[in-house]
Design goal:
The chain has two domains: 31-176, Rossmann fold (3-Layer(aba) Sandwich), CATH 3.40.50; 192-374, Rossmann fold, CATH 3.40.50. Helix content is 31%, strand content 16%. The protein has helices spanning 45-50, 52-61, 102-114, 127-135, 166-176, 192-197, 230-243, 256-263, 276-283, 295-302, 316-319, 352-355, 359-369, 371-374; strands at 36-40, 66-71, 87-90, 119-122, 140-145, 155-158, 208-212, 217-218, 221-222, 246-249, 268-269, 288-292, 307-310, 326-329, 339-340, 343-344.
Length: 377
């Protein structure tokens, strides 16, 4: 199934572009090597992971600089132990789907100002959030300029209208200031304690397959049409287990019942029992991961697991797995992609798009990305 050649279909009307002059005086500042750098990408889990190659590129260019990540509470665990970071700043209610006031915006700017950053790498698409960096007194601000909403940046990076992968868009900020983006990848290293905790879940002499049937729920909204039907996940788990794989079903606390339905009597259901660190420790030992367009899918790629990602309303050209041992399955059914500019159309293909992916296609993709699984099928 080719995820990159489909054309046509519905396109959401673009938000109104903010009219701005060609340049502002602050956009004529030369870029200088910084000593204290803020990575501003607060939310959500998958997007934060897709920003880790950008951190790697800047850190490689400025290995003696001190890097801090501004992150929302929901996504904090994904960068809490990152070895390239010297610290974290929580953004509080300003980012992540909660309600906030201008007092919250000024308070966040004040927290950032006290840390005296030389430069900020801004990976959001919000006029208000780019204003935060200006109010924080950060002199150099490179970042995304989507529809004119980056007007407070000193080094804006225009976001093109045509589909471009989010990780590549973020890396354009490095390229904008002359930093190479070659060879960087998603990064996540689980701690040793997490590796010890998942040891009992690891098979002896059988390939480990991790299935994540949930997703579509973030602090900013709910889009359950991103989920492949649970009965098909259950049949996938059954067939792989019968072929000789050790199948483990993962998910969050609210996914326990779903995990039990998928696991049945042929797989192990640990949904709601593992932290992000423990899930990562399991994934780095996996012969295969299968899941929807979720943060867990991007975590699997970051941990090096061969990955089959299932897409429906979202566009894999923008949000697909960003790694060499991964494939995205997606079928155009006439209404998709219908998730653009951070929102889904109200009548966005309830299950038509992702339901068009067949079990046989998933099994074929699994054999394609994982030699261990191919040997069983």
């Amino acid at each position: 199934m080719d995820t990159h050649t489909a054309t046509g279909g519905w396109r959401k009307k673009s938000p109104r572009r903010i009219p701005v002059p060609c340049t502002f005086p602050w956009q004529r500042r030369p870029w200088r090597p910084p000593k204290r750098v803020l990575i501003f990408k607060p939310c959500c889990v998958g997007d934060v992971l897709l920003a880790t190659p950008t951190l790697a590129a800047f850190h490689r260019a400025y290995p003696r600089a001190r890097f801090t990540w501004a992150v929302a509470p929901h996504a904090r665990p994904l960068v809490a132990n990152h070895p390239r970071l010297a610290g974290l700043v929580e953004t509080g209610p300003v980012v992540g789907g909660g309600k906030f006031t201008w007092r919250d915006v000024v308070a966040l700017a004040g927290r950032l100002r006290r840390l005296r950053f030389d430069a900020a790498v801004y990976l959001e698409r919000s006029l208000v959030l780019s204003l935060v960096l200006l109010l924080a007194g950060i002199p150099l601000r490179v970042g995304l300029d989507s529809l004119g909403r980056g007007l407070f940046l000193t080094h804006p990076v225009p976001v093109p209208d045509e589909p471009r992968h989010e990780a590549e868009l973020y890396l354009d900020t490095a390229r904008r200031v002359g930093i190479s983006a070659e060879g960087v990848k998603l990064e996540y290293t689980p701690p040793d304690w997490a590796r010890r905790r998942v040891e009992p879940l690891l098979p002896r002499g059988r390939p480990l397959v991790v299935i994540h049937p949930a997703g579509g729920e973030n602090p900013g909204g709910v889009l359950l049409s991103k989920r492949w039907p649970a009965p098909r996940f259950a049949e996938l788990a059954r067939q792989l287990a019968n072929a000789g794989a050790h199948v483990v079903v993962v998910g969050g606390k609210d996914d326990r019942a779903l995990g039990a339905d998928v696991a049945g009597t042929w797989a192990h259901n640990v949904a709601g029992r593992l932290s992000w660190d423990e899930t990562a420790a399991l994934l780095e030992r996996a012969a295969l991961f299968v899941g929807n367009d979720t943060g867990a899918m991007h975590l699997a790629v970051a941990c090096g697991a061969p990955t089959v990602a299932l897409f429906g309303p979202t566009d894999p050209r923008r949000y697909g797995p960003y790694g060499p041992r991964a494939v995205a399955l997606w079928r155009r059914v006439g209404c998709n992609p219908c998730f653009e500019f951070g929102r889904a159309r109200p009548d966005c293909c309830p299950l038509d798009a992702i339901g068009a992916i067949t079990l046989d296609e998933v099994l074929a993709a699994a054999a394609e990305v994982s030699p261990q699984v191919a040997a069983l099928l």
